[in-house]
């Protein structure tokens, strides 16, 4: 089956950096789902406070079902995270393996 990579790129507010890193550490420990092979977060080289989250799914079905069983703590952390992101800097990409 073809894998799916979903990524979110954004820039955070500089004054929120430490709080952001704490939220991401907790998210990395909590985000798990059937069909999710990996969840990673990267900082862009030479662009401080620019990050990219990458989700790797085993197939399209796992990708489409990912949000069907929400975790309450993950939802709280995602809300905190959204308050740290600079407006109009978010880009979403979905890649389907061929």
Structure description:
The chain has 98 residues and is α+β, with helices and mostly antiparallel strands. It has one domain: 2-Layer Sandwich (Alpha-Beta Plaits), CATH 3.30.70.100. 32% of the residues lie in helices and 31% in strands. The chain has helices at 17-30, 60-65, 72-82; strands at residues 4-11, 36-43, 50-57, 91-96. It has a 4-stranded antiparallel sheet. A hairpin with a 6-residue loop joins β2 (36-43) and β3. α1 packs antiparallel against α3 (72-82). The longest helix is centred in the first third of the chain and has 14 residues, at 17-30.
Task: Give a summary of the structure in a few sentences.
This protein is α+β, with helices and mostly antiparallel strands and 98 residues long. The protein has one domain: Alpha-Beta Plaits (2-Layer Sandwich).
The helix count comes to 3
Largest sheet: 4 strands, antiparallel
Unreliable spans are: none
What's the CATH architecture name?
2-Layer Sandwich
Write the SSE topology:
Layout: E1 4-11, H1 17-30, E2 36-43, E3 50-57, H2 60-65, H3 72-82, E4 91-96
Antiparallel strand pairs: 1-3, 1-4, 2-3
Helix pairs in contact: 1-3
Any key phrases for this structure?
31% strand, Alpha-Beta Plaits, 4-stranded antiparallel beta sheet, 98 residues, alpha+beta
């Amino acid at each position: 089956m073809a894998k799916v990579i979903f990524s979110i790129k954004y820039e955070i507010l500089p004054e929120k950096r430490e709080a952001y890193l704490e939220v991401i550490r907790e998210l990395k420990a909590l985000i798990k789902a059937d069909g999710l092979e990996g969840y990673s977060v990267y900082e862009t080289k030479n662009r401080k406070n620019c990050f990219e989250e990458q989700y790797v799914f085993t197939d399209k079905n796992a990708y489409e079902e990912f949000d069907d069983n929400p975790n309450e703590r993950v939802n709280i952390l995602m809300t905190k995270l959204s308050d740290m992101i600079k407006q109009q800097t978010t880009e979403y990409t979905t890649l389907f393996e061929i």
